Amino acid sequence: MHCGAIVSDDIASKGTHPKATSRALSGDIVFLLAGLAALGSLSTNIIPPAFQTIGETLGVSTPELGPTLSGFFIAFALGQLVVGPLADRFGRERLVLGSLTVFVAGCLISSVASTLSHLILGRIIQALGACGLSVLSRAIARDVFEGASLARALAVVMTATAAAPGFSPLVGSVLNSLASHHPVFGS
């Protein structure tokens, strides 16, 4: 069964939380949720290795790129305040798809940014999408699983979130050395 179908079948599409099912732990949905949850950490830590290249391209110093990270963190933090209520009102599926769309839009804006202000704007948009995905991945796990299955699912989701900062700088460095900084924002 397709991961989207699993999520669609188990998540209320309008306004209410579905009761957790006693669904067996499914690798498809757990890995989907883990990947969605890890995007925030991945997006944060993949760009510092490319700062020098980004700075040269935009004509700014490396320290001037700091707002690309702080703007991301602030948007990610503030976005968490609205994701839950929006998910309750519009449903998890719509918000996951919307958050993914916002995240991709932020990636595209960041990858083609020709000024520091456009890059910061792209990073803020990217953070809002990543925030929604991170928050919703855990909420969906709670909606779909219960008991020991929920504990195992959340363990995998949190492990992915914790592991992403460990390998994402390496990925960013490799992408930057192979193809400049533009692909770094495709994460």
Could you describe the 3D structure shown?
This protein is 76% helix and 0% strand. By secondary structure, it is mainly alpha-helical. It has one domain: Growth Hormone, Chain: A, CATH 1.20.1250.20. The N terminus is likely disordered.
Task: Please describe the structure with a list of short key phrases separated by commas or semicolons.
187 residues; Growth Hormone, Chain: A; disordered N terminus; mainly alpha; 7 helices
Quick rundown:
The protein has helices at 3-10, 27-45, 51-58, 66-90, 92-112, 116-144, 147-179.
Q: What is the CATH fold-level name?
A: Growth Hormone, Chain: A
Terminal CA distance reads 26 Å
The topology string of helices and strands comes to HHHHHHH
The percentage helix is over 70%
Helix count, per DSSP?
7
Main pleated sheet: none
Radius of gyration: 17 Å
CATH class descriptor: Mainly Alpha
Low-confidence stretches: 1-18
Number of domains: 1
Strand element count: 0
Q: What characteristic shape results from the CA principal axes?
A: globular
Mean pLDDT: 83
**CATH homologous superfamily label:** MFS general substrate transporter like domains
